[in-house]
């Protein structure tokens, strides 16, 4: 992250603490000092309840995010998909249905306002994705959140369970999630995008980015919203795709099978990237898991059918906390 941009972000931090027992710092001492001088910038207001934060992962990567809601309320940690950002969850953080929860979202490494390491190996190691989630949980002082993992975010949630276990996770909502990198569980369109997104040709990568974004929806967003999403997608460097497709950790199904907490599977009936079979396999492996099929959605049911999604998520989190 550019030092000047990091300073601006750090100046807006409303809370600062060391992550206990993880070797990760919520913010650096320098950033903490800056936060003291501009602390009011991180104070929630009636018009903007968000509390911006930065956390440092185990390899030094800085991750940007925000939180809102009562710190003592049930917690939801949103993990977005490939080439997206924390802004993907705008229809969740703005919905009164979820106002009674502590809502936390962040930009994955290589995405949005988070650091973007140049080397592909920063994205090929599942443990690095896992440590990013651990840094956010510790830094944001989350006690036992429900993880909501969309697409790549499902893989990231699984990577966290694989390395850190599920003791600090109250439940998991997998949304059109990638849990196993297998050609028979991903569509040919997804395979084509993977190839084109790692092309050395800028024109081909640009076209692939636009086509990938369009493929994420059965009900297209409004033009102005699609343009904003396209800007975010274009911020993701080629190294993210290059690294992720080279990962040695291709199957996280055993991790979800062995997870002791509740799992909710959400899948769009018209998903053009991840086959329904991906979610069906997790349902078969994890006892008591419910699969909720969204008939009017593609790859993004939380965006395409937000009212239903948010009600189901609220009910799932409430039950997970009580259980």
From TrEMBL:
Keyword presence, DNA-binding: no
One Pfam match: Abhydrolase_1
Recorded superkingdom: Bacteria
GO molecular function, one term: hydrolase activity
GO cellular component: membrane
Limits of the AB hydrolase-1 domain: 76-306
Keywords of the record: Hydrolase
PROSITE patterns for the chain: TAT
Protein name per Swiss-Prot or TrEMBL: Alpha/beta hydrolase
């Amino acid at each position: 992250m550019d030092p000047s941009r990091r300073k601006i972000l750090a100046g807006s931090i409303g809370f600062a603490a060391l992550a206990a027992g993880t070797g990760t710092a919520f913010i650096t001492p320098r950033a903490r000092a800056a936060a003291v001088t501009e602390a009011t910038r991180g104070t929630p207001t009636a018009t903007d309840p968000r509390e911006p934060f930065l956390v440092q992962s185990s390899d030094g990567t800085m991750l940007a995010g925000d939180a809102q809601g009562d710190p003592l309320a049930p917690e939801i940690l949103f993990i977005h998909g490939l080439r997206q950002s924390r802004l993907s969850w705008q229809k969740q953080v703005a919905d009164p249905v979820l106002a009674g929860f502590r809502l936390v979202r962040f930009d994955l490494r290589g995405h949005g306002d988070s650091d973007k390491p140049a080397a592909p190996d920063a994205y090929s190691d599942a443990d690095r994705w896992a440590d990013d989630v651990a840094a956010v949980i510790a830094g944001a002082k989350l006690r036992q959140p429900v993880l909501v993992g969309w697409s790549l975010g499902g893989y990231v949630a699984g990577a966290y369970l694989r390395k850190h276990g599920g003791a600090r996770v109250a439940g998991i909502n997998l949304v059109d999630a990638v849990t196993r990198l297998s050609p028979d569980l991903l569509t040919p369109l997804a395979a084509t995008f993977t190839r084109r997104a790692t092309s050395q040709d800028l024109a081909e990568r640009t076209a692939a980015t636009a086509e990938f974004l369009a493929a994420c929806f059965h009900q297209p967003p409004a033009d102005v919203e699609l343009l904003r999403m396209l800007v975010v997608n274009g911020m993701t460097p080629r190294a993210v795709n290059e690294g992720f497709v080279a990962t040695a950790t291709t199957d996280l199904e055993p991790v979800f099978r062995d997870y002791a907490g509740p799992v909710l599977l959400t899948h769009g009936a018209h998903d053009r990237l991840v086959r329904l079979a991906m979610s069906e396999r997790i349902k078969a492996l994890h006892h008591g898991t419910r699969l909720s099929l969204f008939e009017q959605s593609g790859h993004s049911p939380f965006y395409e059918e937000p009212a239903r999604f948010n009600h189901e998520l609220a009910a799932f989190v409430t039950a997970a906390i009580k259980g």
